[in-house]
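Why run this: before we spend reagent on co-expression, it is cheaper to look at a predicted model of the complex and decide which construct boundaries make sense. The entries below are exactly what would go into the expression plan.
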Amino acid sequence: MRALRAVGRRVGRRLVASAPALLGVVVFTFLLMRVLPGDPAVFFASGPNAGQEEIDELRRVLGLDRPIPVQLAHYLYDVGTGNLGRSLTTGQPVLRDLTERLPASLELTVTALILALGLALPLGILAALRPGSLLDHGVRLVCSLGVCVPTFVSGLLLIYVFYVVLGIAPDPTGRLDIFAASPPDITGFLLVDFLLVGDMEGWRAAAAQLVLPAATMALFTLAPLARMTRASMLAVLGSDFVRTAKSIGLGRGRVVLVYALRNALLPVITITGIVFSTMLGANVLVEKVFSWPGVGSYALDALLGSDYAPVQGFVLLMASAFVIVNLVIDTLYGIADPRVSIE
Amino acid sequence: MIPPLLQVEDLHVEFATRRGRVQAVRGVSLDLLPGATLGIVGESGSGKSVTAYAVTRLLDRAGRISSGRILFRDQDLTRASEGDMRALRGGAISMIFQNPRSALNPIRSVGRQLMDALGAHQDLSGRERRDRALDLLRDVLIRDPERRFEAYPHELSGGMCQRVMIAMAVACDPALLIADEPTTGLDVTTQKTVMDLLARLTAERNMGMILITHDLGLAVQYCGDVAVMQEGQVVERAPAATLFRAPRHAYTRRLVAASPTPRSTVQDLVGEPPRPPPPPRPQAAGTPLLLEVRDLVKRYAGFAAVDGVSFSIRPGESLGLVGESGSGKSTISRLICRLIDRSEGTILFDGQDVGGIPARDFHANPLRREIQIVFQDPHDSLNPRYNAFDCIAHPLKRMLGLRDGAKLRARVEECARRAGLPTELLTRFPHQLSGGQKARIGIARAIAARPKLLVLDEPTAALDVSVQAVILKLLDDLRREEGLAFLFVSHDLNVVRMMCERTIVLQQGRIIEEGDSRALFAAPCADYTRELLAAIPHFDPAPALAG
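The model came back. Tokens follow.
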């Protein structure tokens, strides 16, 4: 009870403290987009032959002729009322575009993270239990490879091996085979939606589409997680309280899992938060390679097209995601480590 | 004839290091009867802890028993399987460690850890384990065990953590308890409660105990037999009383002499003829006090760490500050050194008010060179990237503006000589020097700027007794020859008595008692002082030895 209340207080304080940061992000991206070269009016004019008049008219319609502080004030008002503007490329409100695409990105990132953690934790633990062994060097090699190879290379490599050569993976385009029926849009997460309607065949199809891009991302994030697990596990295994656990005659499994691992996971929790936030924004390349309709590729397209609103919306979304992920991590940490609750 | 409980025969332990194999234990033989107590005494690096870890087979990865036998109830532990060892650890042989707080799992409540210890060897239901754990907490005199059961180690004091550790160690009624420096780092009164508790529990349960310690007094007071180790070998073993009354081996004799006792003088420690106390300096009437502190208060978040303390030091005088952890003695030393700012009160140095100068600006004040400090940890208080020469030269450059190479070198070498540091060691870095040598650098650095007041914050707490003896002697000589005044902070009352003319006893930020050292230690007025003095483990070598 005492711990819960402490966690609640921390969450509240963090939320309040993150408001200025979010505001700063909004203002900064707004200004950044204005100083970047490229004029959306020129870009969206009817064609290269459009006259100056047409461009000026467009600028007036878009509100680009007004002074920047006025534009900023309008933008802030809109953001405050939940209006992120309209994308010039898709013609839809940015908010709708983002809510349509965010589940795709989240599904990919979360799956990749689960995959990465599922591999990294055991590998890190095993490497720490036998430092300097063949296994330890093997893990180090796999991690180095995962970091060295860029995601678009490893993605293409996986496509080549599993789709082209072995033919066991489905066509690596999009979240679902174009001929398959999509589930009703309940949560936006295909795996969840298929489960909810009980369509196991559809679920398998969606999962099959997901495996390769998720594996590509997992490979990339394996290294920080596995290395951190190994390092922190090594430190904890050499600590005084693990020696105490051995000295009272606890079994090896209990010493490693209850005494060592639970302590070693504390820094891993922090790293996981950082890795997750980075993945969410940085999976643009993976989304591009696998034609994944996520927020990353959407924002990239908008950026190339000098389409202000989606980029600003995307940055705001990422900033909010960062805040939320950090909050979750902090809460988890507060529950996992009783020492944190003392301020 | 009762067969011994534990018999160590010609034990050799070696460690694989970067510079090849190092023999940490070289042919140790020991034995212990059931229910008996054995003290193993030695200085750091003597192999006493390694011997204990070899018995429980808890050596680090790099350590290895290279030869010898360890017989426990006629079973050779050097050949026992890991599974057999697991059954023995906690069930038949338990250990208690130094630094109790880090020896407990920080994210598991102490009650659960106790239940783990019980569950490791006994087949009990959760309910039974909980009840037994509560009983154990009661046995180790933890008040309000139901509430403490849920506490985490960081919520308990060091002494309480050690009592929990003791409860874990005795949970499954082992026949042998090995205590590795169980009270190092604890206050002297806490040490007494913990040791008394250990002695009572082992006697009640007829457990054999091996007490590993660097403190001769502790070993003598709580053990039947004492073995002295030096460089991986047992040099002498005898019943406690006779060992210290009539030590046979030269090393034991040196160790006994170097241990401060209620009657020893600094010269006794290093085996020199006693010198008379420094004659009081002729003070011209009206000579200002060197340091005058009035109603000093330091608050941290509303809590007064120092609460209205007043005292003064005359030029060339040595004043001792004693007290337990949390008494505010280190805070006072930092306030005087102007490393932290006071909340209230005045600090007059040489008649000038230095209390009002903010701590962050004091380094630029000409008085900075007059007040210098020697820190507790000789290692951590040296910059690892500076060699000994740079460490000593730094204050000379900063405070005296000494830039000229030849002059600087001459002054550094002079300071090093004064501090007893051979000049050929000046090019070495801290990690290449021993603890005693690093302590000498700290002293040389402090006297480099020719201060009038030297604040010594537990200068020998991290050193072995024989090194401590030499450093204390050095400080005493420096004071006599250079006319320095000392503010000597220590938790070791015997050391303060030898080093200081006057002593202040602190408790919870207030002065409990103040007076001439000899009078104060001979006849303390305050109950608290009496309690502190009574808690010091003491032994009395025969007077014939003192000379």
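The first helix of chain A runs from residue 2 to 35. DSSP finds 14 helices and no strands in chain A. Bring this page to Monday's planning discussion.
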